[in-house]
Amino acid sequence: MKVDTLLKKDSFSSAAGRGLMAGIIGGLAGTAVKSLVEHFLPVRKIEQRSAQIKIVDDLSTKITGSPISVQNEELAEQLVNFPIGASVGAAYGYGKRDNDELNLKDGIILGSSTWITTHETSLPMMGLEPKPTDVPIRMQMNELFAHVLFGITTEVVRSTMLKKLNERN
Q1: Which class for 134: exposed (0-12), middle (13-18), buried (19 or more C-beta within 10 A)?
Q2: What contacts 53, CB < 8 A, 6 or more positions away?
Q3: What is the pLDDT of residues 120-133, one digit of tens each?
Q4: Average pLDDT, the chain
Q5: Mean pLDDT of all residues in 6-14
Q6: pTM score, two decimals?
């Protein structure tokens, strides 16, 4: 089935497809904003490597026999961030596939819950980040702020894109 056909049909699958596309685009935009904020606000100690770099470094060592170079760390980090942001956005967009109205509260909830489920729980449990009690409060608040902006941006872009996709019908 062609994408154009999928977008024109009035069915569950077309609504799901539009929701997924709007969510993916929103998640990518949200990730770009989050990455920009984290470039200016410290979210970890200078000597601390991010969870993303640890994951890519481990993968690189298993595949090539050597870790990633220091000059490629920023790129490697984004190779993890953007697919995760797109995936979170896709799930979010699918869940809101029938609602193209902008709701900033939902974006705030998306961003803060993403922060809680990653930096406050799962990443420390996997040993990829220190326990929240070992992270300075200012850095935690910077990370939370970046995630909230991720959620708000994802919601703004998702609702705008979904409106535009729905107008095509």
Answers
A1: exposed
A2: 68, 73, 76, 77
A3: 999 999 999 999 99
A4: 91
A5: 65
A6: 0.89
